[in-house]
Every structure is written in C-alpha cells, then in structure tokens.
Amino acid sequence: MQETNNENKIYVGNLDYSTTEEELKAAFAQKGVEVKEVRIIKDKFTGRSKGFGFAEVDTPEQLDQAISSMDGQDLKGRKLRVSKARERKPRKEFRPRRFENRGY
Questions:
Q1: Which of 33, 86, 92, 104 can pair with 28 through a Cys bridge, CB separation 3.0 to 4.6 Å?
Q2: Exposed, middle or buried: residue 92 (CB in 10 Å: 0-12, 13-18, 19+)?
Q3: Which residues pair with 37 in a beta bridge?
Q4: What is the dihedral of CA 15, 18, 22, 24, to 10 degrees?
Q5: What does the DSSP 8-state code read for residue 21?
Q6: Per-residue DSSP letters for 38-93?
Q7: Minimal CA–CA distance to 54: which of 17, 76, 26, 24?
Q8: How far apart are CA 34 and CA 47, in angstroms?
Q9: Is 1 contained in some domain?
Q10: Which pLDDT does position 93 carry in this prediction?
C-alpha cells in the first residue's frame, strides 16, 4: 500500500487476532466491495495481529459503500469498526537518554 495516498484507504478495527487478510478480503467481497489490497497490522516482535488493518479501494464510491456495508458487521464474533483511514501522525524523534549531569 502506498503510504502517501489515503484518499481511498479504509481503517478496519476490532478484528479478531486470528483473522487473516484473505478472510477480511472475502468479507468485503461478500458485501460487493472489491478491495485492491488488505493489510492486517502485526506486532513486529511477535508477528501477532494487533487487531486492526487497512484496505484500499479504487474509487470514493467504493470507499463509501465499504464503510456503510461493513461498519458494525460481525466477523468471527466481533463487530467491525470501519471508517476512512486518517493520516498517520508523525512520530517524535527518538533520542537516547544521556546519563550525564545527573548529580552523582
């Protein structure tokens, strides 16, 4: 997925941790929404799902259809939260702590 274009990107939250990208894509297809790409976000250390993901569609009309047809729908016993993806906030720059001047 391109990080620069959020126009047709959908946020999908409250996913069961065992949900696969194929299952999520199939759930959209059942509602008549063709998604270009689906990505479930995973923890970089454990590889376990974080319970949310993103899908990308071609047009704003498909975006609206996906949100209206999927928000609140049940998938693996959990009600999905589906909305238009927001721009990711920039992270603060990491600075290692300096142990100088600590008064020792």
A1: 33
A2: exposed
A3: 56
A4: -20
A5: H
A6: EEEEE-TTT--EEEEEEEE-SSHHHHHHHHHHHTT-EETTEE-EEEEPPPPPPPPP
A7: 24
A8: 27
A9: no
A10: 75
- The reply to whether 21 falls in a domain is yes
* CATH number of the domain enclosing 53: 3.30.70.330
Residue where the block lists tokens 């274009």: 5
The answer as to whether 68 is a domain residue is yes
Question: Quick check: helix, strand or coil at residue 30?
Answer: helix
Task: Kindly report, residue by residue over 16-59, the tens digit of the pLDDT.
Answer: 999 999 999 999 999 999 999 999 999 999 999 999 999 999 99
Task: Indicate the length of the chain as a whole number.
Answer: 104
As for how many domains the chain has, the answer is: 1
- Checking phi first, is residue 76 left (phi over 0); if not, alpha (psi -120 to 50) or beta? left
Residue 33 near residue 70, CB atoms below 8 Å: yes
Range of the domain at 52: 9-84
**pLDDT tier, 5 (very low <50, low <70, confident <90, very high otherwise):** low
Do 1 and 39 form a contact (C-beta atoms < 8 A)? yes
